[in-house]
Every structure is written in C-alpha cells, then in structure tokens.
Amino acid sequence: MLGTANAGTDLTAYTTVEAEDLKKYAVRFSGDHPDININWVRDSTGIYTVCHPTATTALKQMDAWFESVTVSLKQPFYRTFLRVTVPVCTPSILDISTYLFVSAMTTVSAVVFLYSPHTTPASVAVLNMDDAGDIAPAAAMGMMIIDTAAGVKILHYLLNRGIEVKTQTWRSAVSS
C-alpha cells in the first residue's frame, strides 16, 4: 500500500540497506522532496523492521487517555493492559508471533553457528543432508519445514478469525 506525504511531513523509514548505500538514497530523496524529513532507521537483521512498526501501529490505535484514566481511577496498569491493550492489539500480536516463528523455521544464517552436535535445527539438518549428498531426504525435510510453516499460518488465520469475532467487534461499529 502506497501512501502520500505532504510538505513538512516527518516520515520514519525502516530499512536493511547498508549505510553506504543508504546515503545515496537519502541524498536522492532529499533532492526530489526537500520539504519531507525522513528519519532513517537501519537494521541489519530485518526482524526489527517488521515487528516494531507492526506493534507501533497497533499501539497507535489506542486512545492516549486510557493511561490517564487508569491512574486517576487508581487502577493497576496491568488491568488496563490485560483488559484493553491486549484485546485491541491481539491481531498484531498474532501477526508478530507468526512472523517470528516462520522466520525462525527458515533462517539458517545465524543458526548454523549456534547449534550443538546433539541439537540440530531442521533448517541446518537440510543443509547437512544436502552436503552429504542425501538430496531426497534433504528435499523431504525442506518440505516438512514448509508444511510446518504453512500449518502455523493456517492456525494463525483460524485464531485470528476467532479472536476478531470475540474481541474486535468494536471495529465494525466504529467504521460504520
């Protein structure tokens, strides 16, 4: 989804582009759009760039007065957190947890260095089988990783639908 920005707008851009390359993009963008200020957030892992904006966007749905009302009513913060913040942000919490799970299932780059001989993650086992020449078992294990990730995504969809019916009915009332 593309958005628009007006003159005088401050934008935050999350990126995994290397610092040297980012300077070229920043100079080009500033030349084309001098009235728009961009705060560049560079992250080399990619996990932060997906989870943080998702969580931030979900939290921005919350009215700023909830915290003030909680304090004025002398209620503990965790009550508001559990009864208001979590239900409003539940779809985003599910999205983030599913993203992290699928990412962990398929990531090999950092995991290769973190496992012991007794505990081998599936993604590393696929690489080891392929290196040993066991192509068919490696392909089968790769398919199991894909099937597991797809199963988690289906479970995520079903949970999300059930939770939307239970906790997100206020959204349809607000949009009407």
Structure commentary:
This protein is mainly alpha-helical. The protein has two domains: 1-44, no CATH class; 45-169, no CATH class. Helix content is 65%, strand content 7%. The chain is built from seven helices and two strands, in the order βαβαααααα. It starts with 9 loop residues before the first strand and ends with a helix.
List keywords for this structure.
176 residues; mainly alpha; 2 strands
Short description:
With 176 residues, the chain is mainly alpha-helical.
Q: What's the total number of strands?
A: 2
Strand content: 5-15%
Gap from first CA to last CA? 23 Å
| Largest pleated sheet | 2 strands, parallel
Name the helicity range: 55-70%
Q: Evaluate the radius of gyration.
A: 22 Å
**Order of the strands making up the biggest sheet:** 1-2
Oligomer: single chain
Number of domains: 2
Q: What is the string of SSEs from the N terminus onward?
A: EHEHHHHHH
Task: Using the alpha-carbon principal axes, give the shape.
Answer: flat
Chain-averaged pLDDT: 79
Number of helices: 7
Set out the fold topology.
Blueprint: E1 10-15, H1 19-32, E2 37-42, H2 47-59, H3 65-72, H4 77-106, H5 122-131, H6 135-167, H7 169-175
Parallel strand pairs: 1-2
Helix pairs in contact: 2-4, 4-6, 5-6
